Amino acid sequence: MKKLSAFVLMSALGAALSSLTFQALAQKSSADAIAEYRAALQDGNPADLNAARGEALWRTARGPSNVSLEQCDLGLGAGKVKGAVTKLPRYFIDAKRVMDLESRLVHCMVTLQGFKADEFTTKTAFSGEGQRATVIEDLVAYIYDESRDMPISVPQGHKEEKAAYARGKKIFFFKGGPYDFSCASCHSQDDKRIRLQDLPNLTKPEPAKAAFAQWPAYRVSQGALRTMQWRLYDCFRQQRFPELQYLSQTSIDLTTFLGVNANGGKMAAPAIKR
């Protein structure tokens, strides 16, 4: 009887511990689980390979003019990369418009290397799932990686920068398409999600800082490095909006709005996503 009583006691204790473990796991949110997953993968982020290829591309003579991008001015002076993306989008006097990183890279590839502007489209700038990264994707990975952990400081000193922010804000809240969606439909309230994916409230400083700082990112599910231009393109697709044209004014204005909202955050890109 004593042995039986001990057995019953141990069984009851085991059941209680199992119940407590289950409750602890249940209390862990999907966001926590995804965050742990990303943290586990970050040390082996495949985007590191993109960045290494991008650095080589930056220094390699290419194009009809057979020159490198080392004289490209990303806003801090010719050839200066470290810290450049923390201040993008910004107004460039030589182009007379506000540019994000991708539009500035294309500008340099056209003016310095001799490529044609119409060579750069969504089909040529974005790789397919599991395909080799494009030149743009590798260059973007390298340039962002050089600014990791640096503070975001998207400028608003020039009138064109302020105008880009104002347009971007309107775009963010604009509703349209067959479902009357907007960016704000998913990203202007707390505690919203799609399936297991939490949706950050991009109108608040802290969520905006965290979200903006993590793009570009390597998408594990697609086996590809994805840029901010791609992120916005895919958001428009999911809203069933007309196709967002690569490097369009709309894309740059919306990036400006998101970037200014994220000022004060620290760059964490290229990050890793599910």
Description:
Helices cover 48% and strands 8% of the residues. It contains eleven helices and seven strands. Strand 5 and strand 6 form a beta hairpin. Helix 10 packs across helix 11. The N and C termini lie far apart (54 Å).
Task: List its traits.
mainly alpha; disordered N terminus; globular; Cytochrome Bc1 Complex, Chain D, domain 2; 11 helices
Brief characterization of the structure:
By secondary structure, the chain is mainly α.
Strand order of the largest sheet: 6-5-7
Mean pLDDT: 88
Number of strand segments: 7
Question: How would you describe the shape?
Answer: globular
What is the count of distinct domains?
A: 1
In CATH, the homologous superfamily goes by the name Cytochrome c-like domain
What gap, in angstroms, lies between the N and C termini?
54 Å
The helix content, as a percent range, equals: 40-55%
- State the low-pLDDT regions, or none: 1-22
Helices and strands, with pairings:
Blueprint: H1 2-27, H2 30-42, H3 47-59, E1 90-92, E2 97-99, H4 101-111, H5 122-125, H6 135-145, H7 159-173, H8 183-187, E3 192-194, E4 197-199, H9 205-213, E5 217-219, E6 224-226, H10 228-238, H11 249-261, E7 271-273
Parallel strand pairs: 5-7
Antiparallel strand pairs: 1-2, 3-4, 5-6
